[in-house]
Structures are given as structure tokens and as C-alpha cells.
Amino acid sequence: MNFLHRERAELEALMPGLDGALARRPLAELERAPSPAIAAFKEAGGPGLLVPAAYAGAGASALQAVRVQRAVGARCPSLAVATTMHHFSVAGLVEAAKYGDGLEGALLESVAKQRLLVASAFAEGRAGQNILAPHLTAERRGDRIVLNGSKMPCSLSRSMDLLTASVALTGPDGVDRLAVALIPADTPGIDVRPFWGTQLLAGAESDEVRLTDVELDLSMVVATEVTADAVPDALNVAGFLWFELLLTAGYLGVASALVERTLQRPGGAADDPAAHLVPVEAAMLAVEAVARAMADEPLDEALLVRALTARYAAQDAIAETTRSCLAALGGMDFITSPDGSYLASAATALTFHPPARSRMARPLREFLDGRPLRIG
């Protein structure tokens, strides 16, 4: 079947052997914790996907990356969610390396060569909280910074090699600004505790990471110009672009797995495939359009709005597709196999990732009226 062939070819080219390794295992085995999918991802060189070739990585473009994420999501939803957080963090390091003092480049090379996994303690999933607001406290002590707090959920919590976290640092002008801390996972004071209370997407390892008096050299902190009003600067706009596109592509992959099962069911060849195909394919085309634009357009607020538009359109497409596919698969499939209902439930989880559609209603309206985009 030609469905998903382009995405799987891209995945095979950039992470040889991963698609086959995932396809050979039952969905339930891949989705449990601990998931064998994470080790397979590392073995295939997945951590270096977005690391530039100059730093020994694959140097994938945004277009290649979203296709890879869709292919991964179609095999293992938990891996797509978990690796989105890794790729998002790596993409942030790539952007920071353009302005940094060389530390970021050395870290990127380590990520690619040593196949390190990077977890993100940046975006917080609490209702009503601004996702740019740091949830870890940071105290300067000479040339060190001491971190306290926790992140829950935090994907890759039990497999991470590095943790990226948002913190607030007070500048010479007395204003608190957002900074990103890079924390080795074996740093004293880091503790991982159970948090994820459902079997859905359990393989993403989204538990709590708690930091207690974690000391970090100031050289491991990348400063930004973001203040409390949450107007994103160039570095954060780029990060949000990657996050929204990779996340959306992964969840469209999950929905695509359900479409694939529907098209391949006994008797399915006689059906009109449009009802199942069109919503997710159209949504993916929107994601790809923004990914293509990232190659030759400014990574600005206008492009981020387009990415958010594609993401929210994908939520609608997933809702429509999961309904039609479950109806087509019928009651016997629901009774005899948990895979269909699992994929449908997992795909709808895109709705729960920040920034929520309801939270962005006013900021999008303000942006249309000519004001700066704020991430709520």
C-alpha cells in the first residue's frame, strides 16, 4: 500500500532499521513502560536527527523531520511523543549555538556521537499556566546556580541523558528573564518519581523529575530576552515552531495508523477511502507547508501563527478521522483487539498539549489586530 510510503522511506533513510524494528513488535509491547522503542530509537541514531552535519548529526530539514515523526507515530505513539520533546530540545540548542560561545556546539556533537537523549522540562501541562513561565526556582551562588522544583509530566524521564529546563534569572537591571538550563541527568539532586497514572502513552516515560538543590555552572545556562509578559524572542519562536510541527506530525501519524488498519481490514478495498484519508492528509499538507517555509522564510511570529493554525486544524482532522475509522472497523474489531480504540484515544491527546486552543484565542485575536503574539 502506498499510504505512508513517503514517510517510512524518509524514516529508513535517516534512522536505518527503526521502522522495521518497531513493525516487528506488537503495539501493546511498544506502548508499555519501559518501552523497547526508546532503545531502538537510540540504536538507529535517532538522537542526532536535527543535529547539523557540522556537529556529526543527520542535519534533517524541518520537512524531513515532520515526515519522520509521522512515520514514528504510526508505529509507536509513545515514541513519537517522547522524541518530540528530545528533538524540540535539540532544535533549541541548534538555534542557541548561533549566538552562543561554543558550548552548545560541543553539546550537539555529544548528542549525535554518543546518541544522548535530551528531556524537556520547558513546557508545563497545567491548565491556566503560561507555558513560558519557569516552574523551577533558580538562585545564584557565586559562579553557580542552584535549581529547585519539579517537572511533571516529563517525557523520557527515565531514559534521559540531559535535561533542559526553563528558569528565571535576574539581570543587572533587576528584571527577571527566561533562561534555559542544560542539566546532565546524573547531576546530584535529580530524582525521578512515578506520576503518569494511565496506560495511554505510558511508553513515553512521562513521570515526575524533581530537582533538589541541583548545582549547575552558569556556563550551562543560555539566557534569552523573554520577560514576564511572555512575548517570545527569536530563540523561543524557533523552539515553538519545532515543537508544534513535530508534535502535530507525530499525532497525525497515530491517527494514520488507525487509517491504515481501516484501509487494510477485510473488505476494506471496496470502500471509498476518502472519508478516512482526506482529513489527515490535508492536515499533514498544512504541517509540511509550514515546515517548507522554515527553510527560506523568517522564523517569526507570523510563521508561528501558521504553525498553530496547522496544529489546531490537525486536532479537528484527528477527531473526524478517529470517528470514521472506528465506525468502519466495527464492533467486532473493538471487541477482539484493543489497538483501534487505543490509537483513537492516543491520537486525541494532541488536544492536551500546550498551548491549548482556548488559551490562544485572545492572543491570536490580538496578533491579528497588530499586537505582538503572546503564548498563553
Automatic annotation (TrEMBL):
SUPFAM superfamilies xrefs: Acyl-CoA dehydrogenase NM domain-like (SSF56645)
Presence of keyword Signal: no
Keyword Flavoprotein set for record: yes
Gene3D superfamilies, per the entry: Acyl-CoA dehydrogenase/oxidase, N-terminal domain, Butyryl-CoA Dehydrogenase, subunit A, domain 2
Keywords: FAD, Flavoprotein, Oxidoreductase
InterPro entries in UniProt: Acyl-CoA_Oxase/DH_mid-dom_sf (IPR046373), AcylCoA_DH/ox_N (IPR013786), AcylCoA_DH/ox_N_sf (IPR037069), AcylCoA_DH/oxidase_NM_dom_sf (IPR009100)
Positions of the Acyl-CoA dehydrogenase/oxidase N-terminal domain: 31-91
PANTHER family per the UniProt record, alphabetical: ACYL-COA DEHYDROGENASE (PTHR43884), ACYL-COA DEHYDROGENASE FADE28 (PTHR43884:SF20)
Full protein name: Acyl-CoA dehydrogenase family protein
Organism: Kitasatospora phosalacinea
Lineage, highest ranks first: Bacteria, Bacillati, Actinomycetota, Actinomycetes, Kitasatosporales
